[in-house]
Write a structure and sequence with these properties.
The protein is mainly beta and 320 residues long. The protein has four helices and 21 strands. The protein has a single domain, classed as 5 Propeller (Tachylectin-2, Chain A), CATH 2.115.10.
């Protein structure tokens, strides 16, 4: 996007004027936070699956619903609490976090979320047809892995996901993996890394479920910069090739959102905007949802074309 256009449109993500859209005070059971929600439009209504800290410091997932994507009502009971029996109980012992929803073409909704336990953090996959009940399918990563987003269409007959393993040598980079059956994942490769002395230099991770545009898959990710006052979490955008999403067409140099509102700057973890979901609309806009300071849920809108423009013609990430 050129400078003139950038100045003309102002902030690329316009915050909803009545943020935050959901707080702990809207939840009818005792929780300390409401944040990092996956979101999707189901039968014309927005379904939000949000994370909450309990007073023991562990997390569960709640459900809220909205007609317009901004006014949400939380359900009286939590939606996912740690499994109490079987293999999932072992891995969900310390809580469930940061769920993403994938509206898989022609199938159930897929829910990928982080599970914490004495074995580390892993990713569980569950499915639901109606957001009334879920069926846990499989643990789909080893430790240590957070932040898995699944593309909403199969590509060349395989499911595709972005994931985020961590290693000392290649800290917190984004990988792509494939699966024939949603259970066995592999053929993984690193496709995007943090950039030195850039707003996302410390770590990057998959954010919202990618969505299709004319020019490519748009992926809103998070990036972290370490300051003397602690880490700052911001959001950026990357555009992936439609036929081969391992090929990144471009990554915006600028972030699209940073902590600015008081409830993004101060909270359970200060200076955080963190997304797990966005809903593209038929009018060319996208509603973006983010947790503010790991405490509240916020919403904003952007024009999809503007986000795509920010990626086109931008530098490829440094050689892997
Ligand atoms: C990450 C995750 C997110 C959280 C962020 C900021 O490592 O734990 O759930 O929003 O840190 O605290």
């Amino acid at each position: 996007m050129d400078e003139a256009r950038k100045n003309a449109i102002g902030p690329v993500v316009k915050r909803y004027e009545n943020n935050p859209v959901l707080t702990k005070h809207d939840v009818p059971y005792p929780v300390e936070t409401v944040h990092n929600a996956g979101i999707v439009k189901h039968e014309g209504r927005y379904i939000m699956l949000f994370r909450s800290h309990l007073r023991n410091g562990r997390s569960i997932i709640g459900k809220a619903e909205s007609e317009d994507g901004f006014s949400f009502t939380a359900y009286p009971e939590p939606f996912i609490t740690p499994a109490t029996e079987g293999m999932f109980a072992d891995y969900e012992e310390f809580g469930v976090e940061d769920l993403r929803i994938c509206a898989m073409d022609g199938e159930d909704y897929l829910l990928s979320y982080s599970t914490y336990s004495r074995h580390g953090v892993r990713i569980a996959l569950a499915r639901t047809a109606d957001f009334k009940s879920i069926e846990r399918v499989a643990m789909i990563s080893q430790p240590d892995m957070r932040n898995v987003v699944i593309f909403p269409e199969k590509i060349d007959g395989r499911y595709v996901r972005l994931d985020r393993p961590h290693s000392e040598i290649s800290p917190w980079s984004i990988c792509i993996s494939y699966s024939p059956d949603l259970i066995h994942w592999g053929d993984s490769k690193v496709i995007m890394k943090p950039v030195l002395y850039h707003w996302d230099e410390m770590k990057i991770g998959p954010g919202a479920t990618p969505f299709r545009t004319d020019r490519g898959w748009l992926h809103i990710y998070h990036g972290v910069f370490e300051t003397m006052a602690g880490a700052v979490y911001r959001l950026g955008v990357a555009l992936h090739d439609l036929d081969d999403p391992s090929r990144i067409i471009g990554v915006s140099d600028d972030w699209i959102l940073q902590p600015e509102d008081p409830w993004e700057i101060t909270g359970y973890v200060s200076n955080v905007v963190f997304t797990c979901g966005a809903v593209p609309e038929d009018d060319g806009s996208v509603k973006i949802y983010w947790g503010g300071a790991d405490s509240v849920m916020c919403a904003g809108t952007a024009r999809i074309e503007d986000l795509v423009e920010m990626c086109i013609g931008k530098r490829a990430r440094p050689p892997l």
